[in-house]
């Protein structure tokens, strides 16, 4: 295993890459300049097998080790930014109004490029590594689309690994856990139809606003009164659309929310019970309900063998005490989950220090974390594909 000191020499160069990407953020699948930058850097490292245009703008590069034949493992970095107006005031602030790398994908891309440069020079492993630069993570679709377009079979990937920076974890530390580490994400819409009328004569109406309010209140008990307190399920209803008038009770209202769960059983429970709850409450008032439920990103689930391989790579870099192997799962979702459905693998958190939270206009990736990300990737490849 290599130590963090082995990656200090590439730090300044990788910082320059990261800050260039930060100044030039792109959204979704429209990361054409970012993908071009990535491909040019990979070519400059002497990597010959580079494929572009996967899921529109995805880039995959393959490095063969000097140790002969063996399996191929995939390493993934996301490239897209967010539609946020930056408020960091940093010299490298976004030059594109209304777009910002507020989730650290600029850092993720720079770290995987750093690992690519090191691995292409040393090739101290057997088999191959596939470097996956993915678009549209923030849309929740890019990873799934790369899988649908044959990513795993096309590059013969046997295991796949991802990483995300995490504010609140110290720079130089890592967090990982076996099993569920990030939540599945669903969205739902509930249309409540009653009978509208004048606000001065509510007794002539079936007020869908009141029905909707009762549904929102009742949905909170799905978690607080129906589940074991040690289980993790979050049901939120941020959307409520009704009348635009002070004086009119509408015929219908629409509620919209999300469900975040850490197990397939909880996901099934929520989908079923939200519908039952809404329909029963509406029926009690004489109203009707139309319910729509959409399953979006799956559960991000780490596989045991791959988790141990990832944890060992981090321990080799920073020591056992700096790797939390029982990190708490988080209720946000991650589309890397689609890759983990397609192949065994693991997802890990990299410390970003006491910065603003992700998706915050004052957030910035901590450049001091870059050598740790590069070192982790290299240790993972050289440990997982040891000669």
How is this structure best summarized?
By secondary structure, the protein is α/β, with parallel strands linked by helices.
Structure in words:
This protein is of the alpha/beta class and 387 residues long. Helices cover 34% and strands 25% of the residues. It contains 10 helices and 16 strands. The chain has an 8-stranded mixed sheet, sandwiched between helices. A 4-stranded antiparallel sheet has the order 10-12-8-13, with helices on one face. A two-stranded antiparallel ribbon has the order 7-14. A hairpin with a 3-residue loop joins strand 1 and strand 2. The longest helix is centred in the last third of the chain and has 22 residues, at 264-285. 47% of the residues are buried. The mean pLDDT is 97.
Q: For the CA atoms, what is the radius of gyration?
A: 24 Å
Distance between the termini: 13 Å
Mean model confidence by pLDDT? 97
Largest sheet, order of strands side by side? 1-2-4-3-5-16-6-15
Biggest sheet descriptor: 8 strands, mixed
Helix content: 25-40%
Low-confidence stretches: none
Reading the helices and strands in chain order gives HHEEEHEHHEEEEEHEEEHEEHEHEH
Structural class: alpha/beta
* Overall 3D shape: elongated
- How many β-strand stretches? 16
Q: State the assembly state of the protein chains.
A: single chain
User: How much strand content do the residues show?
Assistant: 15-25%
Number of helices: 10
